[in-house]
Structure formats: structure tokens, C-alpha cells
Design goal:
The chain has helices at residues 2-22, 25-89, 93-102, 147-158, 183-200, and strands at 119-128, 161-170. It is mainly alpha-helical. Keywords: Membrane, Transmembrane, Transmembrane helix.
Length: 216
Amino acid sequence: MVDDYSPPIGMLVISIFMSTLTRSFTMLISTTGMTVLTVMVSILNYRSSVKKHHEQNKKLEKKYLNYLFQVRNDLQSAASTQREAYTYIHPSIQSCVEIVRGRSKQLWEKTGIEDDFLNLRVGVGIQPIALVPIYSSKAKAIDDDNPLEEIASKICEEMYFVRDIPVYIPLRNINTLGIYGKQQEVRDFLNGVLVHLTTHQGYDDVRVAAGCIFLR
């Protein structure tokens, strides 16, 4: 901004000096008027440029903010789809009962050649989202705080896990599984595992053996 004023101010100084030497006040007045007009035009142009710059920044910020919310909606949709898929593959105990009663196609559909054979549902929890959101901020000045970058980072953190989704254990990869807890909780857990085991796994590929120890 100061550089824009340098030529008019320099011209004004030269005009004053020349007018003093020639004693021409007409030249001084005309030159002063032109200089003032030039400075005013420069100020107006500068303010107009700053205003356009701010308006452009606001448009870009609004556009980027809309994009972030669209990404968040897409991630929520992906999380919902993943939850539905997991729920179909690993349904609740009540759904297993309905599968057995209705002789659904899901009954005994998993055989020993399937990748998810002996993947047994053990409850509901959190799982990493399949569509992993990644945000990497570029190098910036220490004092440069961009709220949009903070929003993008929070969206990635918020949507990294899918909540309220079935959790399973790959029983095929486990040689020995120990269960510890209160008697009723252990019993309920084992009942649930047996329901899922006998509902989905092929009856030719699974054998269930039970042993009981009575403590007095």
C-alpha cells in the first residue's frame, strides 16, 4: 500500500519544489489536485481489491465447509452400510432363532472353505470403518490457526470407528479360548456362542462336545 503512494507523493514533492522556484501557484494547485486524485483512486482500488479478496475467501471457505460436511455424510453412510452388512453376517440371537425357524438360506451356509468360517459373534462394540478417512495437514506457520483444518481433523477422528456394530472372534485361529466372569454372564455368553455356531456353520464341518465339572 505504501509503495502505491510513493509515485504520487514524489510527484507532489517535485511539484512543490518546482513551483517554489518558478513561483507558479497555478502549477502547484493543479499538480496537488492531480496527486490527491491519484491517491484517492489508489485507496479506492485497494479497498475494492481487499473486499473482493475477502468475498472470494468467504466463498472458498463456504465451499470447503460444504465439502467437509458432504464427506462426513458419505462416511456416515459408509458406516451405516458396514453396520448393516455386519449385522446380516453376524445377526443377533433372536435373528438366529428366526433363521432356524424359517429355514432361511443363512442356515448352515458357512462351510470350512469359507474365509469367515467359525467367525462367531460375541457382542456389539466398535470396529474400524472400512472406508478409512485420512487427513494430512501441510506444513504451516506456528501461529496459523485454520478452523477448517480443525473441523476436517475432527471429522476423521469421529468417523474412524463404526459404533454399535457386531464384534466377532475368529475361532478358527484360536487354539484355546478361556472365558472368565460371573457364572450367569459366562453361561449367557456360551449360549450365545453356541447359537451362532450351530446356526451359521455347516453341520458337516462342526462338532460340538461338552464336558461338565460339578464343584461342591
